[in-house]
């Protein structure tokens, strides 16, 4: 990166870069892990898949609540959705300008995190509809029953699926679930790419604050 | 500055533990409430539902309380860090002002500050690229201007200011 050294001496315009609080950090890594396992590894519809979905829903809800009552860096007020600012931030990065420091997410990062939350809620809630709201424990119990030769569990499931109306409706919900999940994985990859680009442009490792470590 | 760092580490550990508790409680609460809802769906409302509602309430209250506690801990850690910074800045100002009152020369100010930070004559000489004899002479002049007999008394002047 051909950065002029004079730019590097500019001390971030007086804004302290964010130090993420433990709830933000822990929820971030737990959700990331669950998304990877549910998106790439485990079997859709299995008790583990549904259980992780439930856990993600709980974690995201806590994080959204934390956005109102948490410390300044975690609060929504610190990173309001601003699409035009996000575009100008990305434009600046493309022109190899050194970005300024923000007290929380930068405008592009803010748009990314709101999109990711929306997708996480979409995926988990459509998942709830697809399973008829059956808990992972029920699913595990039913699966165990089926495995031991008691097929009545399958009959019990059937009315639950009817509750969602016609099978077309069920198919649409399933399609939304799958599309949103794929989009989530793509955006997660884009998010990692964004962290790499921004880290280079800022000249500091942005992964460190998410691991709870101070300046490099 | 060992003490504040210990305090900060304790605060960090405590807040990390609280964050983990909040998340575990939230996951547990959602699972429990989902299971309770399924029970009600299957068997209707019963005496068990009342207990499940009570446990759900306790879990949610636990999450809110831990979250509030976490916020308090984070605020405390931050205000301690700020107070320490203010104290450092204030002490530096007090020292500067006192040095000016004693009319220390720039070289004497440097030597005096190093002495306050606990460096010995040989270390100060190395840092300043001067002979130990020069540093010793400068320190003697500093003690004379401050009206003290030696290093311990000299440092005590500022500690006394801090203790009030």
From TrEMBL, chain A:
It holds the Pfam family Ni_hydr_CYTB. The keyword Transport does not apply. Keywords: Cell membrane, Membrane, Transmembrane, Transmembrane helix. SUPFAM superfamilies: Transmembrane di-heme cytochromes (SSF81342). Residues 19-212 form the Cytochrome b561 bacterial/Ni-hydrogenase domain. Gene3D superfamilies: Transmembrane di-heme cytochromes, Chain C. InterPro entries: Cyt_b561_bac/Ni-Hgenase, Di-haem_cyt_TM, Hydrogenase_cytochrome. One of its GO terms (biological process) is respiratory electron transport chain. It is found in: Cell membrane. GO terms for cellular component: plasma membrane. It comes from the Bacteria. The chain crosses the membrane at residues 23-41, 48-69, 108-129. The keyword Cell membrane applies. One of its GO terms (molecular function) is heme binding. It is a multi-pass membrane protein. PANTHER family: BLL0597 PROTEIN (PTHR30485:SF2), NI/FE-HYDROGENASE 1 B-TYPE CYTOCHROME SUBUNIT (PTHR30485). This is Cytochrome b. The lineage of its organism: Bacteria, Pseudomonadati, Pseudomonadota, Alphaproteobacteria, Rhodobacterales.
UniProtKB/TrEMBL annotation, chain B:
Residues 101-158 form the HTH luxR-type domain. The chain crosses the membrane at residues 53-70. Signal peptide: none annotated. InterPro entries: Sig_transdc_resp-reg_C-effctor, Tscrpt_reg_LuxR_C, WH-like_DNA-bd_sf. Keywords: DNA-binding, Membrane, Transmembrane, Transmembrane helix. One of its GO terms (biological process) is regulation of DNA-templated transcription. GO terms for molecular function: DNA binding. This is DNA-binding CsgD family transcriptional regulator.
């Amino acid at each position: 990166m051909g950065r002029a050294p004079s730019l590097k001496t500019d001390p971030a315009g007086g804004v302290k870069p964010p130090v993420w609080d433990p709830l933000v950090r822990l929820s971030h890594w737990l959700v990331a892990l669950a998304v990877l396992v549910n998106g790439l590894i485990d079997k859709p519809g299995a008790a583990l898949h549904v259980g992780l979905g439930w856990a993600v829903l709980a974690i995201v809800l806590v994080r959204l609540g934390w956005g109102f009552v948490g410390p300044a860096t975690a609060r929504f007020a610190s990173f309001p959705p601003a699409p035009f600012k996000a575009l100008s931030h990305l434009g600046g990065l493309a022109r190899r300008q050194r970005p300024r420091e923000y007290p929380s997410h930068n405008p592009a990062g803010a748009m990314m995190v709101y999109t990711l939350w929306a997708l996480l809620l979409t995926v988990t809630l459509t998942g709830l509809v697809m399973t008829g709201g059956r808990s992972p424990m029920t699913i595990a119990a039913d699966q165990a029953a089926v495995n031991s030769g008691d097929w009545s569990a399958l009959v019990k499931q059937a009315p639950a699926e009817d509750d969602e109306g016609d099978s077309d409706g069920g198919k649409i919900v399933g399609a939304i679930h799958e599309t949103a999940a794929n989009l989530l994985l793509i955006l997660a990859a884009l998010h990692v790419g964004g962290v790499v680009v921004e880290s280079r442009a800022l000249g500091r490792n942005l992964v460190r604050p998410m691991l709870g470590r101070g300046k490099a | 500055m060992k003490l504040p760092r210990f305090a900060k580490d304790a605060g960090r550990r405590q807040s990390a533990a609280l964050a983990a508790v909040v998340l575990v409680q939230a996951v547990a609460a959602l699972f429990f409430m989902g299971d309770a809802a399924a029970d009600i769906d299957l068997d209707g409302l019963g005496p068990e539902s009342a207990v499940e509602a009570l446990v759900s309430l306790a879990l949610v209250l636990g999450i809110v309380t831990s979250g509030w506690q976490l916020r308090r801990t984070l605020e405390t850690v931050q205000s301690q860090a700020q107070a320490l910074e203010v104290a450092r800045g204030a002490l530096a100002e007090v020292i500067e002002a006192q040095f000016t009152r004693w009319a220390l020369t720039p070289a004497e100010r440097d030597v005096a500050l190093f002495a306050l930070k606990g460096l010995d004559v040989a270390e100060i000489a190395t840092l300043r690229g001067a002979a130990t004899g020069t540093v010793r002479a400068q320190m003697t002049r500093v003690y004379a201007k401050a009206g003290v007999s030696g290093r311990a008394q000299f440092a005590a002047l500022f500690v006394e200011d801090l203790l009030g």
